[in-house]
Amino acid sequence: MKTIPLLCILLAISASLPVAGRETFGITTLTPPRLEFNPNPAYWPRMRLWQGIPSIERAPGGRLWATWYSGGIGEGKGHNYQLLVTSGNDGLTWSKPVAVFDPGRQLLGGAGGDAHLWLDPNGRLWWFVHRVMQSPGIHPRTCWGFHTTEPDNPKAKWRGPVFAGYGYSLNKEFVTSDGEWLHMVDPMSKKTDAPLPARKGAHVWKFTGYDKPFEHTGHVEIKDTPFTEHMIAERKDGSLLMLARAKYGIARAVSNDKGRTWREIEPFTKDFNVNTRFYFGKLKSGSLLLIVNDHPRKRENMTAMLSDDDGKTWQHKLVLDERTHVSYPDATQSPTASSTPSMIADAIKRTCRKSFSQNSPRPISAPERSSRKAASSNAKSTSSPTKAAACVSTARALE
């Protein structure tokens, strides 16, 4: 008699369970998810129709990690998942996916979304993932954090997850001068009367322990924004400056009590980076780093800006990529003595991972051919034909 594995039966049941059925089995939006390691070829580059919204991080020993999401026919369309790759040669070549977060293939069901990477002050690497699941709970969108104590190991073992907020989180955490780790989350909610942690606005959560859920700290409702995608930096007077995505450019809010209460003030800018993601953070030198699309209307002219006066002026600028459709940057700086940040960004047809120096006017670049993806090389970027050539050669190495 032919037998059917019990797991297959459970997966079939789960796929057909309505929300009420999941409740019967005790499944809620707070039921922890899991990762899949050594994923099969279905997740390899040639099987993807699109990909984007990347994040990058560097381990203490120099190993690079990158994540983004893909699956289905487009962003938020069908079977989306998040994947993780790594590089041991400064981004010259990248691994096949070493892990994926694919809720649609798990017993609990759901879909994946935005993810990001962050190296905490103790040298542990975090991978924050996003799940959307129509099950009982105060909000269908939840963020979960996995971490590893061996970020320089390409076969690192991951611990967790811990609950990290209602909504999605695609930007890095910030550590305040008094040691609090702040974590930014957007519930993507239009409700102003929902339970506070799931209410419309830019939310701040804080780390409470490696085996404990993050704790909600504060929030602010940002006007004229479809997605807040906010980031925080601390100023010299101890106040926190929040920048958020807005339809007109970049919104601004401040907190004088370490993120517990906020007030939105006049816009940061209406002159560039209209309705798109940016990167905002503090370098080890104390300067503020802002990476934006320095254009009044389009997602082009990706530019790094530095401020030495808490963001009042931006005295130093470096064009990283002048092409159209290069957007959604993330960046990191080596935890060692190196002063060279690395950046990853989306593009249509290809995406760049750049390294640049605060003291050098010439960035290092190499895109990978794909719909929207991450890659890198050590070829110096001098003209568009040079970049295109680097794109093709790097893609062959990756695939």
From TrEMBL:
Keywords: Signal. Residues 373-390 have a biased composition (Low complexity). Residues 1-20 form the signal peptide. Residues 62-336 form the Sialidase domain. Residues 354-399 are annotated as: Disordered. It comes from the Bacteria. Gene3D superfamilies: 2.120.10.10. Transmembrane segments: none annotated. PANTHER family: BNR/ASP-BOX REPEAT FAMILY PROTEIN, BNR_ASP-BOX REPEAT FAMILY PROTEIN. This is Sialidase domain-containing protein.
